[in-house]
Amino acid sequence: MEETVITEYARQLMEAHGQSAIAEAAQRAVACEHAQDKEGAETWRKVEAALQILRGPRTS
User: Fold this and answer.
1) How many Å is the maximal CA-CA distance in the chain?
2) How far apart are CA 55 and CA 60, in angstroms?
């Protein structure tokens, strides 16, 4: 999947789920890993990384 598509999907997921979108992507990646779907897991990990970038740096 192209990076632009992943970024757009991450943006849509963030709009739909807010900050829980990162956890959602991580859970889907784990589910793919358990199902032996390496490509799916890789895609979800990329979405998770894109979501973390969209979220921005954490502040304390």
Assistant:
1) 38
2) 14
Cβ contact 46:6 at 8 Å: yes
User: Encoding tokens for residue 58?
Assistant: 């954490």
The whole-angstrom separation of Cα 20 and Cα 12 is 13
Residue 44 per-residue DSSP state: H
**How far is the C-alpha of 49 from the C-alpha of 59, rounded, in Å?**
18
Domain encompassing residue 21 = 3-55
Query: Is the entire prediction scored with pTM above 0.70?
Result: yes
60 is a domain residue: no
pLDDT digits (tens, 9 = 90+) for 41-55: 999 999 999 999 998
